[in-house]
Specification:
about 10% strand; 2 domains; 2 strands; elongated; mainly alpha
Length: about 120
């Protein structure tokens, strides 16, 4: 894009940013604001989309390439964590499995939460 086209586009975008801000701050519905200000509804939404897209490009980080492979690491748990529960508590509508190594505070918190919902 040459300098003149860039400046022209930037100027037009700045004007539309002001118009869109004015519309959003007016308290009017978009259609009513457009009619009152002699702005095409189509042009309003066209520029709103362009401005939002530009904001997304500058604010959000680049989306990573979808073709990159994803690697997972295997996590080995210490032997103190058993796969099967040591204690199972059945309540109306809920079951809680308590495994070896779970702290007393965690168990108390879960039981208090269950008491509130059951």
């Amino acid at each position: 894009m040459d300098k003149v086209t860039y400046v022209k586009t930037k100027y037009r975008q700045d004007q539309w940013e002001k118009l869109i801000s004015d519309c959003q701050n007016s308290g009017l519905q978009v259609d009513k604001w457009c009619k009152k200000n002699q702005v095409s509804r189509h042009a309003y939404y066209y520029w709103l989309r362009k401005i939002r897209m530009k904001a997304c490009e500058t604010i959000l980080p680049a989306i990573p390439d979808q073709n990159k492979s994803i690697a997972f690491a295997k996590v080995e748990l210490p032997s103190r964590y058993s796969a099967s529960p040591v204690i199972t508590i059945h309540l109306s509508g809920a079951s809680v499995d308590v495994r070896d190594g779970v702290g007393q505070q965690t168990i108390e918190s879960v039981l208090l939460a269950l008491k509130k919902i059951c």
